[in-house]
Amino acid sequence: MIFTYAECVNEYGSKYLVNKAVKTGQLYKQESGIYSDKEYVPALAVISRKYPDAIFTMNSAFYYYDLTDVIPEKFYLATDRDATKIADERVVQIFEQKDLLELGLTAMDREGCSIRIYSRERLIVELIRHKKKIPFDYYKELIRNYRDIIYDLDIPTIEEYAYEVPKSSMIMETLRLEVL
Question: pTM of the entire structure?
Fold first, then answer.
């Protein structure tokens, strides 16, 4: 299990006892401010605990849903537009409007931890919205994989999400021409 530094201080009683637990092997320091009771913890679990309000999106989410076999080099996280910039080199931060941030939010169990991630329906909208920022071959691979699972998706929900975000007419036209 992963803990923040504040949780460890509450659990052990003082900073000294937290440091003592680390030295004796009861607790393992994963990185600054993040501890666990296991020596090895997946980076995904550390990132999801370190940034609890962030949502996995784009390349990370496409990989976690098996829509691509390209392993992302960084974690793609969506945060509120007013959120503090994430200085972690392992993270690509995507700023989203407050009213759109939790649209299509769901939870997924991955590598032994629960992460906040966008649904496949929201991700197809994000894919089309950001298609100019994505390499063409990668975009086509994702669209092809979405075509393979189109009958598993909730089309009215996709349309609802498309009308909520900017560029809705372009998104609907692209959905109609390339996916459906």
Answer: 0.90
